[in-house]
Amino acid sequence: TGNLKEAKMLQLKAIEIKPDYAQAHNNLGSILKDLSELKEAEVSLRKAIEFKPDYSIAYANLGVILMKTGKLKEAEINTRKAIELNADSAQMYFNLGQILKELGKSKEAKDVLKKALQLTPGNLEYNVISKLVFSTIPMNNKQINTERNEYQKQISIIKNDTELIFNDEPFSTNMFKLAYHNRYNDKLILKELAKALSRKEGIVNRTFNKAKQIKEKKRRNHIRLGIISDFLNEHSVCNYFGNIIMDIASTDIEVLIFRGPNAEEDKNSQLIDTFSSEVIRLPNSIKEATNLMINKSIDIIWYLDIGMSNYTYLLSLSRLALVQVQTLGHPNTSGSNEIDYCISCDNYETKNSHLFYSERLVRFSRIPANYSTPKIKQSTFKLSDTNLSAKSFLIGIPHSPIKFHPDYDLVLDKILEEIPNSYLFYLDGTKTYETDKLKHRWSKYTKFVLKRTIFHRRVGFDDFLEIVKNLDIILDPFYFGMGNTFYHSMAFNTPVVTMPTSHMKSRHAYAGYMQMGIINAPIASTKKEYISFCKKLAFDKSYMNNIRSQINYKSRRNLFNDKDIYKEYIDFFKASLNAAKENTYLPRNWSPKSIRK
User: Fold this and answer.
1) What is the distance between the alpha carbons of residues 274 and 575, in angstroms, rounded to a whole number?
2) Distance (Å, whole) CA 327 – CA 510
3) d(CA 410, CA 447)
4) Is residue 396 classed as helix, strand or coil in its secondary structure?
5) Is 451 helix (H, G, I), strand (E, B) or coil?
6) Least packed by Cβ within 10 Å: which of 1, 282, 358, 413?
7) In this structure, are strands 496-497 and 473-475 parallel, antiparallel, or unpaired?
8) How many CB atoms lie within 10 A of CB 430?
9) Of 432, 433, 404, which Cα lies nearest the Cα of 105?
10) How far is CA 572 from CA 139, 238, 292, 298, in A?
């Protein structure tokens, strides 16, 4: 029933009575997993196997824990052992398929997932995960097009398959990766996906009563705002929106925080919680979660990052409040008919960018974030450890591997060719196989990139900031640009070379430069100009010094610590709620009144 702490106590009592009770150790491991106590869960599951060496479920559960903690090879071994002991479990084949995908063994993963489907052909989750597939590191544009076409084809098949059953568990749709492809039909695909899933019994909650909610709202003088995210912790989403949540909560708006069952908590989430009137940890069941949220009588539901979490994406397919809005914590449209608005800003968008959104686009006067100035507390990184010459020009590309579009490879190569003393600085991703695939692509299509890239191990936050501080410039990648790292760059006066497109996901550095008012900023309109800006920063010291000086002064005034932007949110909340009560939407040209002078 979700009372995990009491369940944990009862399993511990069972073990106290019978220390070699394998089932109790296994149960305890599962409970500890749900409590995010993963190290303790691993110990319990190993105990279960010690007392019962043929306990297939314990091996399977241990495999899940090991996958969550990044011990993928060991996870594979234990899951294979579970299958050896119980060859008829679709769940175990499914788990193995997920582990193999994380290990980069995509072909083998596909075969294993087919086995899971053979055992339970009507399982919606298995069908979606095994059929809606994108490569994290595509080799070329042809592969991107092929995979997107197949993705659309499989959506149609899933939509029309009336035998598929939703087991009330969240699952991945792989929609997150669409945003990295630089294609113009994301909205079409995501609307098709939402429509296909909304047809499946049990996913969409249809019990929301608008008239009842309007009546409930009239009893209160304040707005009840529900905020949903799994990333209000040490994460970029929290960096963007955490301060705004606390600013809003300090007004007469009542703020309720909703978290998914697997959302991690830390000092950041705990601080935000102190400003909130209520914090709700939602159950794993989508049906129970949506019922709970409807019963909370929320006026406005604000999704910070649809697409980042499988759980919140499924919630977004239901109507749970009078107004439902998303923010671009993940910069793409939701595709859901139930999300009314998307909050963006003028410089994030172009004249026709509303065409990319299934929601009504709302443009604030400036970047809709209150980002604190990052500071280095203690760092051990030393640039001298790289053994580079003092005359070297160090170009940062400290981005997730998924951000390196195939079109970008030859541009990187040309920059290195045109700036002979230059080196690229890359930080390893969380998944080694993704970096290995990127290296393989670079080995096939570039001449200089592998030879003149420093591949540095992952580092802590303070060391990362120290690296940013020591870079000569940082490149904003095509076509999904920098977010967090742009702010880090500006905090240490490190110029960023950018090339915005008509998609918001490429326009953050552009918007930041425009908001700061940087004159002659390195904003390119073509690939050739992008390369030219890199050369100008490398060879023209007066230009480099001027850009650094402008960033140093203007970022402090116009980029960081925007303590007024929350007022634009409040204007929007009030106006959108009034429109909803009249059964309409805000006009397309609506803008907040609380624009900073």
Assistant:
1) 27
2) 18
3) 9
4) strand
5) coil
6) 1
7) parallel
8) 10
9) 433
10) 43, 21, 26, 16
> Which residues in the chain land under pLDDT 50?
597
125-172, pLDDT tens digit by residue? Answer: 999 999 999 999 999 999 999 999 999 999 999 999 999 999 998 999
Cβ–Cβ contacts within 10 Å for residue 386, how many?
16
Query: Taking the chain, what is the end-to-end CA distance rounded to the nearest angstrom?
Result: 52
Q: Edge-to-edge, what's the strand order for the sheet holding 453-456?
A: 453-456, 422-427, 393-396, 473-475, 496-497
Write down the pTM of the prediction.
Answer: 0.91
Dihedral of alpha carbons 185, 186, 188, 192, sign: positive
Instruction: State the maximum Cα–Cα separation within the chain, in Å, rounded to a whole number.
Output: 76
How far apart CA 151 and CA 308 sit, in angstroms, is 18
Residues contacting residue 152 through CB under 8 Å, at least 6 positions apart: 189, 192
Query: Are the C-beta atoms of 406 and 138 separated by less than 8 Å?
Result: yes
Compute the distance between CA of residue 513 and CA of residue 498 in angstroms, rounded to an integer. Answer: 10
The pLDDT, as a whole number, for residue 595 is 62
- List the structure tokens of 571: 């204007």
Q: Tell me the two tokens of residue 369.
A: 């974030």
Q: How do strand 393-396 and strand 360-364 relate by DSSP bridges?
A: unpaired
Beta bridge partners of 341: 325, 360
d(CA 256, CA 301): 9
User: How many other C-beta atoms can be found within 10 angstroms of the C-beta atom of residue 1?
Assistant: 7
> Collapsing DSSP states into helix, strand and coil, what is residue 335?
coil
What pLDDT shows up at residue 110? 87
